[in-house]
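Attaching the record inline, Q. Sequence:
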Amino acid sequence: MKYLDLAMNAAGSLGAEYADIRIQKTTDQVISLRNLSLKSAKTNVIHGYGIRVFKDGAWGFAHNNVFSDEAVLATVERAYEIACLSATVNKDKKLRLAPERSYIASYKTPVQIDPFDIPLSEKVDMMMEVNRTMLAYDGIRQAVFFLIQHKDEKLFASTLGTRLDITHQFIDPMITATAVAEGDSQSRTFDEGGRAIGWEWIESLNLIDKAKQIAEEALIKVKADTLGPEERRSLILDPNHLGLTSTNQSVMLPSLIAY
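Structure, as predicted:
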């Protein structure tokens, strides 16, 4: 992007000892369904840039979200002015930058199908079918589906000659079935915590089968017998639940105890 070179050349012309610019575009989309009702479908985009300038042992920073030659140059000048003002405050505590070389690199999350290219209607139809599958079980009173998608597109340049182009994204589907029986309710959830991957992962998950599994497990859970009298038992935790367990040494024992 032309603004990288424009900003770094301007900082050098002003007399900056070092400068860098970060341009970032963040896109988030969250879709939520409860039963067969679409509760939310929001896409939020934040796009802007920040410029740092180092001068006389002090830093200056300024940011903007207006993309034009005039706005970028004004932001560089503002960062430079702040650095100069900061230098007058800590005259006896000047900072020094460590020697560093330049880097030219790029990275993109391996994605075969960009989730943001999938039409919203197609995503909602898929989610509706998953919820419909869970609600088809007698005793399942609530089905919830959250679909979270996130993408960061970053460009970085410095007066050292560094140029970086990084795009990172992830997707996370979460489905929950809640069963009700004899005055009690129990839920089961499928959530693998998301992955840095594309829509192809969603297609490979076979969420209809996952929906059947958690609906059946929710029904088993709500109809399960109580443990009865308190006694010493072995407890097996799956990775998702274990991650929530306290790291207190009295809990993280080789053989866990449940009551």
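The chain is about 30% helix and 35% strand. The first strand starts at residue 18 and ends at 34.

More tomorrow.
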